Amino acid sequence: MARLEINRSGEMDVFVRVVELGGFSAAARAVRMTPSAVSKLIARLEGRLGARLVNRSTRKLQLTPEGSAFYDRATRILADMEEAERAAASGDRPVGRIRLNTNASFSTHILAPLLPEFLARYPDVSLDIVQTDAVIDLMEERMDVAVRAGPLKSSSLIARKLGATRMMIVGAPSYLARAGEPKTVADLEKHNRLGFCYLRSIEGWPLTSGGQMITLPTIGNIQTSDGEALRVMAVAGVGLARLAAFAVREDIRAGRLQPVLEDCNPGDLEEVHAVYLGQGGPLPARVRALLDFLAERAAPAFRG
């Protein structure tokens, strides 16, 4: 019976505040307790769990591996409790904050133009958008949804296809005037081929030449981890880049970029998915609303 008397959610909340605010005093002010009471609560929690959660020093607190794992679980549990209360109060109406991870190209050219419609449809939902081309751990980064381009690796994540895009080599008129427009795959050997500095499913540019498929390495003087930065560099005339068609179509229409060697383009498509953690229970209404909206509206946006 004594076990039932422990306010576990209260303990978790105080512990999370200690971690996020960086100390007992700041957490104590936030929860209206004394620093000594907060310190005793953490000590009782550690005693009950049989594990040290934080290493204490006069300057800062440092999480132990056990403390880091407990913090990750506690934040998810508290978020689930908050979502349950919101759902109960709202009749499962989408409310709350969504943490979304996406690459900058999708965010700029697909997501941003759709956001006014989404937010008008769901005024009680807000988004934290974190942009990176690298693949992240959703649980570790506390993300609800991530948008990923290219083949998906086997994992516990659940995926919904949002669309697919052609890939194409493009260059700015200023660069092509200076370096010459390549007419054959062999001509590309003389060009500055901009690329990515992280591992991708296909390393290099797939092309057809003489009826055969080849992959040309991206050997240029700039590599970046950001596809949108690569597009901007191509527009600036730094070199050639192979990018998603949806990311460069407006530049092509405006004459800032032009396709190169389209007759050697193998026509491969890069699929784009929204992925999320499959935790066995129903999705929060806010996350389900975003996934349904992207599945409905993103595919036409890819086609332009």
UniProtKB/TrEMBL annotation:
GO terms for molecular function: DNA-binding transcription factor activity; sequence-specific DNA binding. InterPro entries: LysR-type_TF_proteobact-type, LysR_HTH_N, LysR_subst-bd, WH-like_DNA-bd_sf, WH_DNA-bd_sf. One of its GO terms (biological process) is DNA-templated transcription. Residues 14-64 form the HTH lysR-type domain. The keyword Transcription regulation applies. Keywords: DNA-binding, Transcription, Transcription regulation. Belongs to the LysR transcriptional regulatory family. This is LysR family transcriptional regulator. It comes from Allomesorhizobium camelthorni. The lineage of its organism: Bacteria, Pseudomonadati, Pseudomonadota, Alphaproteobacteria, Hyphomicrobiales.
